[in-house]
């Protein structure tokens, strides 16, 4: 009788052996982004969060460009041409540092660059994408408005023709990167339907006042966009899309990154809780030796690694050209919701220390409240799945 093969040791950091699914190139991308985030974000982000700022954002953007993290799943124009799984791994590592850093990268690559890459003219692509991929130009994405978040079809920003020019008037709200962006992709109503416009932010009539007094995503630049008679040439419009299909396809790409990223925030909190449970003593022994603490850690590990498996599965489907928007909604709904629960449970293990910025737990928990809302609220993704499951539209 043949001897049973020797089993690999159990790895608490990878209890399901998910790394076995990754190719050497995948691991190299992950390790590169992890090392950058460990060195350039983790030591400082608690202070950035406390101060409510992201200093040296342009320098950070150039560094992210240098490691190929901006628009990394796009091809050509200086972009890395990475796989969807590699992009997802990068998002996980960035959000393990802070959701604000992953948001910077997601808005740059999955929204602004993606819109130009997929729907723009060759002149628009050549003019912006190489600089954006290098981090020399930061982009933002103007869709959400003060009165219209989940219902973008009702947007009031309007672009009218004036001779051969376009003139834009309106406001956008909760725009990541807005006040530091060199270019904004702005969506507006026109007489012929919703269109996207590539707007250099130095255009007269454009302003982007920064939004302060946030208690979430504090290490991130969030702005309002004000368009007051912004005059653009005819070639500023994205030529290859009309209607909501344009912005919604961009949002689907960004949501995919969130599916991975949320698990990064969850992993950070889980690892913090495990380390704390091993060292914190009560009643004469480490709290990790008590049954209730171990039950919490086991449940957290199960949801964390189920979420990573789900993200990996969706990534392989995207790489195969088989990922549907409903499946992205499935991933965003599950993973962000479970990530928040993992953060909250980690906070209970840390007790009062869980609210201190000495640890990342409360920072991740408050950040994820924003992640839960942007790129589609829980309710919107529930209705997307409900329609897919029943064939009945409950949105209206």
From TrEMBL:
<keyword id="KW-0809">Transit peptide</keyword>
<dbReference type="InterPro" id="IPR046373">
    <property type="entry name" value="Acyl-CoA_Oxase/DH_mid-dom_sf"/>
</dbReference>
<keyword id="KW-0274">FAD</keyword>
<comment type="similarity">
    <text>Belongs to the acyl-CoA dehydrogenase family.</text>
</comment>
<dbReference type="GO" id="GO:0016491">
    <property type="term" value="F:oxidoreductase activity"/>
</dbReference>
<keyword id="KW-0285">Flavoprotein</keyword>
<dbReference type="InterPro" id="IPR009075">
    <property type="entry name" value="AcylCo_DH/oxidase_C"/>
</dbReference>
<dbReference type="Pfam" id="PF02770">
    <property type="entry name" value="Acyl-CoA_dh_M"/>
</dbReference>
<dbReference type="InterPro" id="IPR036250">
    <property type="entry name" value="AcylCo_DH-like_C"/>
</dbReference>
<dbReference type="Pfam" id="PF02771">
    <property type="entry name" value="Acyl-CoA_dh_N"/>
</dbReference>
<dbReference type="InterPro" id="IPR013786">
    <property type="entry name" value="AcylCoA_DH/ox_N"/>
</dbReference>
<protein>
    <submittedName>
        <fullName>Acyl-CoA dehydrogenase family protein</fullName>
    </submittedName>
</protein>
<dbReference type="InterPro" id="IPR037069">
    <property type="entry name" value="AcylCoA_DH/ox_N_sf"/>
</dbReference>
<feature type="domain" description="Acyl-CoA dehydrogenase/oxidase N-terminal">
    <location>
        <begin position="24"/>
        <end position="136"/>
    </location>
</feature>
<dbReference type="InterPro" id="IPR006091">
    <property type="entry name" value="Acyl-CoA_Oxase/DH_mid-dom"/>
</dbReference>
<dbReference type="InterPro" id="IPR009100">
    <property type="entry name" value="AcylCoA_DH/oxidase_NM_dom_sf"/>
</dbReference>
<dbReference type="InterPro" id="IPR052033">
    <property type="entry name" value="Glutaryl-CoA_DH_mitochondrial"/>
</dbReference>
<feature type="domain" description="Acyl-CoA dehydrogenase/oxidase C-terminal">
    <location>
        <begin position="243"/>
        <end position="389"/>
    </location>
</feature>
<dbReference type="Pfam" id="PF00441">
    <property type="entry name" value="Acyl-CoA_dh_1"/>
</dbReference>
<feature type="domain" description="Acyl-CoA oxidase/dehydrogenase middle">
    <location>
        <begin position="140"/>
        <end position="230"/>
    </location>
</feature>
<keyword id="KW-0560">Oxidoreductase</keyword>
